[in-house]
Design a protein that fits this description.
By secondary structure, the protein is α+β, with helices and mostly antiparallel strands. It contains four helices and four strands; from the N terminus they run αββαββαα. The longest helix has about 40 residues.
């Protein structure tokens, strides 16, 4: 993959890439409410982070590492994981809000007896939902 494709995949998040004293720096403008350091520390990354300018909506963040093939690949992988985790979290929050609105409509348009009998049964049994990152224990 060429440098154009690497930069293009970050879209509007991309700010700059630079090399300073054998340190590679990738600067991204990320939403201010995104988790970054927490995600990096969760998988013991060697990628370093420096928070730069912050506005009410975005933060300019420098991800950096020694300029070597291996370390650069780790940095790119780490940034990809951070973006994916945060975009997934945003989508989950949007889905939750949508489902809350759907449930409110159900509760407004049904009587109390029918609401007491509501069950949530997920159709795809193979894909088990996780509670706090772990699959729920099923007795039996």
């Amino acid at each position: 993959m060429g440098i154009f494709n690497e930069i293009e995949k970050y879209g509007d998040y991309f700010h700059s890439v630079r090399l300073h004293d054998s340190i590679l720096l990738l600067d991204l403008r990320l939403p201010v409410d995104w988790e970054i350091k927490k995600i990096l520390s969760s998988f013991g990354s060697t990628t370093q982070v420096k928070v730069n300018d912050t506005t009410t909506t975005h933060t300019l963040i420098s991800f950096y590492c020694p300029f070597s093939n291996k370390e650069t690949e780790i940095l790119v992988s780490d940034v990809d994981k951070i973006i994916k985790w945060n975009k997934d979290r945003e989508e989950k929050n949007n889905l939750l809000n949508l489902k809350i609105l759907e449930l409110e409509k159900v509760f407004q348009s049904n009587n109390i007896e029918s609401l007491r009998n509501i069950n949530f049964d997920f159709k795809e049994r193979e894909k088990k939902l996780k509670l706090d990152g772990e699959e729920p224990k099923v007795a039996g």
